[in-house]
Write a structure and sequence with these properties.
The protein has 165 residues and is an alpha/beta fold. It has a domain at 4-117: Response regulator (Rossmann fold). The chain has helices spanning 13-23, 38-50, 69-78, 96-105, 118-136, 149-159, and strands at residues 4-9, 32-35, 54-61, 86-91, 110-113. Strands 2-1-3-4-5 form a five-stranded parallel sheet, with helices on both faces.
Length: 165
Amino acid sequence: MSKIYILVVEDEPEVLDVVVRDLSSLEETFPIEMAVSVKEAREIIAEIEENGDKLGLAVCDHVMPGEMGVELMIDMQKQPFTERTRKVLLTGQAGLDATVEAVNHARLNRYIAKPWDPEELVKIAIDELTTYVIEHEKNLLPYLGILDAERLNEVIRSRGTVSDH
């Protein structure tokens, strides 16, 4: 079974560590990759694709040296491999224009303002990953213990089958 990754893109190492720590309860099922720049994020995305795995969730800071997070998310939306990845913009500095651009062009799923509530971040990650696995996975059973079991059970019942294997 291919792995479904979470990618966290943040140029401040201490902030990156906090985001990863906040999401660590998901890591056993959804391995977490970290990038400190858009360039590094692109390399990690290419590696995940080459390995035949999936990118379920990208949590990306907006303001970074070089390319901005919104630019990465817009590019991800244009690529078949990452078009369906759930995208969350995490920032303390994005103005309204950048947010509107992200929502309109990157099909941004969520916007989280810094500083964030760790429980809220996990709740959002679980919600977005639940949506991703419902849309892309045949067998939802492996995710019942970690994602939104109520939503997953509903889909399992509506499909009328546990898996299509």
